[in-house]
């Protein structure tokens, strides 16, 4: 039987909360086969938050476990698009309904046509 631990992140996924969130994530990975992070209520995410998600994914994989990111907020989607991280995490993306007062445009995808290989 697969054990899934679901954690909802409310507020910022930022440097200010990195230690607290890291401890919660590691505890959940230790006690479950899958850590599912609900990101619907993430209001801001910075480079530390991105690094935390990436490190959590690596930790889960090294333990033979899984990290699932679900219900991405507009803020998370914008950063993932900007940094081209959607494929890295590999989770299905569902665009959330618009929230009042938020900009509804996504940054354009980077133009890779001129990149040398």
TrEMBL record:
What the entry lists under CDD domains is as follows: STAS_anti-anti-sigma_factors
Q: Where is the STAS domain positioned along the sequence?
A: 1-109
The record's section on Pfam families has:
STAS_2
Alphabetized PROSITE patterns for the sequence: STAS
Start and end residues of each stretch annotated as Disordered: 97-117
Q: What is this protein called?
A: STAS domain-containing protein
